[in-house]
Amino acid sequence: MSTNVDIPPLGESVSEAVLLRWLKNDGDVVAEGDPLAELETDKANVDLPAPKPGVLRRVKEAGETV
Which residues contact 4 (CB under 8 A, 6 or more apart)? Predict the structure, then answer.
């Protein structure tokens, strides 16, 4: 069963972010809380953590807006 990785709240006035880079490869086994990707907003860069343990399957590419 797949689990979507939701973007955490990034701030009161921030509504989108850019996926800067993946920190894990497609198909990597990840633990809950592992950083998966780095996101960039107009205010800060943040890591996107894994919500559950599992195998990462990417559906977005670096440079895309999320």
Answer: none
Cβ(38)–Cβ(21) under 8 Å? Answer: yes
Residue reference for tokens 């800060």: 44
pTM: 0.84
pLDDT tens, per residue, the chain with 66 residues: 788 888 877 777 777 899 999 999 999 999 999 999 999 988 888 899 999 999 999 999 999 998
d(CA 63, CA 54): 24
CA-based torsion, 6, 19, 17, 9: positive or negative: positive
Q: How far apart are CA 41 and CA 20, in angstroms?
A: 10
